[in-house]
Amino acid sequence: MVLTDESYMRCLENQRGEITKDILERFKTKRRNLYYTGFDLLGSISKKYRVKRVGMKNQYSDLEAQFVSDIFMGLLESGLIVSAKTKHGDGYRAAKKDEITKIEISA
Length: 107
Fold this sequence. Notes:
Layout: H1 5-14, H2 16-26, H3 43-48, H4 63-78, E1 81-86, E2 89-94, H5 97-106
Antiparallel strand pairs: 1-2
Helix pairs in contact: 2-4
């Protein structure tokens, strides 16, 4: 049986909570002034949820990468991921508990 794009997206959607948790865990830091930078920050998470698909030229698609990226952007927009300019480029980290409270109050 070939896994269609629609079926694949449903599989990813069923794992949305786990993916979100993994993203927040990946970007957790002990300090407020520490940010993660780099070209492929979400690559390891995308690979974790990647499924080999029969009938695909290289057996992989970019659907999981786009799905993980969309979740990340949602977390960034909601304030659960904080961004800043660093000397190494744009940096990201998970918001601290007191920052989340401030975000919820201002919303």
